[in-house]
Hints:
Elements: H1 2-26, E1 32-36, E2 42-45, E3 51-52, E4 57-65, E5 74-84, E6 89-99, E7 104-108, E8 115-116, H2 122-133
Antiparallel strand pairs: 1-2, 2-4, 3-4, 4-5, 5-6, 6-7, 6-8
InterPro entries: Adhesin_E-like
Domain Surface-adhesin protein E-like: 31-132
Protein name: Surface-adhesin protein E-like domain-containing protein
Amino acid sequence: MNVLIKYIAVLSLLLGTIFSSYDINAKEVKWKSYATGEDGTRHYYDPESVALVSGNMVRVWEKTTTSESSTSLTKELKTFREVDCSRRRYRILEMRVEFLDGSGKEQSFSNPKWMEITRDTWMDTLYEILCKAK
Length: 134
């Protein structure tokens, strides 16, 4: 009987470990690459975060990683953007920065400024992806 209890305890521990690691991996963001700059800077978006706020407004998490040849002080920048598909403009609602030295900063914007989306830019590519999909 004592052996059976030990067997059940070990099996429970093993299954608990498997299922808890499965939950962690299931919540990982699957970033999808959509643009690369001339300096090797790469742009990604999280397809699972795309949310239609209203008929013409879409929100999405976007990530930018800098290349080793870049002169930027940042390693990675994540932004939560809102895109107005009818007016070809966007604004940043939240930003998370990771610097090369390992430090980071987060900031939310209560009344962010709208910015125009210039044609033939990486932001234009994201606009096309988001606004054609809605």
